[in-house]
Amino acid sequence: xxxCICGKGGSGKSTVVALLxxxxxxxxxxxxxxxxxxxxxxxxxxxxxxxPPIPLMELAGGKKSIQRVLRTGFTEDGSYQEKSxxxxxxxxxxxxxxxxxxxADGIGLVCIGKIHxxxxxxxxxxxxxxxxxxxxxxxxxxxxxxxxxxxxxEHFGRGVETSVDAVLxxxxxxxESVGLAERIKALASGAGAMFAGAVLxxxxxxxxxxxxxxxxxxxxxxxxxAIPFRREFLQAGLEGTSLNAEPVAGEVQSLLxxxxxxxxxxxxx
Length: 269
Ligand SMILES: Nc1ncnc2c1ncn2[C@@H]1O[C@H](COP(=O)(O)OP(=O)(O)O)[C@@H](O)[C@H]1O
Ligand SMILES: [Mg+2]
Known about the structure:
binds adenosine-5'-diphosphate; Rossmann fold; binds magnesium ion; 10 helices; 18% strand; alpha/beta; 269 residues
């Protein structure tokens, strides 16, 4: 099963990914987290890893070679001697080279690619690699793939969601976030992906939660759970340390139940 977490930049996508990964582990699932956000850096420490994995983009010989590597396994100048796993029609998590997957305690982390330099070109090749990676990746019955998507909606244009089982949007208390959630719902349906609904994040009071939920529901977006604003999360983000999911365990459990139910449902909502 593959679940994709979308939303506005800074809304809490990576935070929600880390919380869901911890809850999935508690349920003894195998978890693969896919970092598909080319500009965020902090997902690996939120998950408790010391270092990020080497991006898959490097396994593919860089952005210029990506299309060719996905088809043939070789870079344009033929220098990539070993046929890439990415060129196969399908692969499993275990087929990926260990250098490109960080693993600890049943959680694996892969990273599609990061933008390091000014003027290095657009992020389209990352979108292509994300889409093909998710399409070719076969999951075991007890394995759940959680994708930390780049901010905004461009990835829908690149078809990244076409092979995911459920799309979840993170909504923080802002009109911009609400509008984006509505768009993501429409785009997910257009991409043929199941839109599970929204999780509210960073809600500082019940009143704010109720107003945010109402704004989303007015736009036809189902609300699955609400994660409060937690000072410890902000502090962990500032210090670059792992997230402790314990204080929001109940909210995350009900969120995961709803997302799994949506992903397993035969038809869209
Ligand atoms: N529920 C929350 N309470 C407090 N701070 C939060 C919460 N969720 C996220 N944050 C903080 O907000 C910032 C952005 O969160 P992050 O998960 O990195 O967002 P995104 O991945 O959408 O850009 C981080 O500093 C994070 O620690
Ligand atoms: Mg992020």
